[in-house]
Amino acid sequence: MAKMGCYCGAAMSNVSCPSENVIYVMKKERVVSALKYNPQITLIDFITNWDVLTNAKKLFIPEDYDFWYCTECKRVYKSDTHIGGNKLAAYKLDTEPIQISKKNLSTLSELIVFTDKEEDDAIEKEPQMTLSSFLASLTDRQYYISDNEDTVYVYDRKNDHIVLVYRSEKLLDCVSQ
Ligand SMILES: [Zn+2]
Questions:
Q1: Ligand 1 mean position to 60 CA, how many Å?
Q2: Which terminus of the chain has a smaller tally of CB atoms within 10 A, N or C?
Q3: Ligand 1 centroid vs 111 CA: distance in angstroms?
Q4: Domain presence at residue 176
Q5: Does 174 fall in a domain?
């Protein structure tokens, strides 16, 4: 259980389950290698049960961080996974409209992003839901990150346009609780 202070002053916590401050963000390659390792891997194993999956852990755990979402200002933080982990990156919603062609977008790394609530709802509905069928349910939006990791584009597949852009911002000291 942990808490984190947002730069806007709001407090974020992962105490409740699901927590609206918890999101999952990972490179798509990580998901692809998990599915390669075991096409039937369940969502719950993928998210939490690493202890029983020692081989899998070696294969695709290295890229593992906590991600926090502020419901007040919509910032996203990447942090160390241990309790009280430091912020490693902060992303702020960009209000300036952005132009990027679909072609350029497709050259960027794709991210898989989902909320703690989406994960929790899925497992409650179907405890043994596979990772692949869960991913198939997340079709509305696609997420891409620039190579230098300073910009994240959220693409609305249905309406075929970028709906949100996040930009990394400088990490501040002394804003934790
Ligand atoms: Zn905030």
A1: 31
A2: N
A3: 22
A4: no
A5: no
Q: What domain range includes position 165?
A: 3-169
**HSE-up of 42 (CA within 13 Å, CB side)?**
14
Is residue 175 in a domain?
no
List per-residue pLDDT tens for the chain, 177 residues long: 688 999 999 999 999 989 999 999 999 988 888 888 889 989 988 887 655 566 665 555 556 789 999 999 999 999 987 767 789 999 999 987 677 888 888 899 999 999 999 999 999 999 999 999 999 999 889 999 999 999 999 999 888 888 899 999 999 865 544
Collect all residues with Cβ–Cβ distance below 8 Å to 73 and sequence separation of at least 6: 6, 7, 8, 10, 92, 93
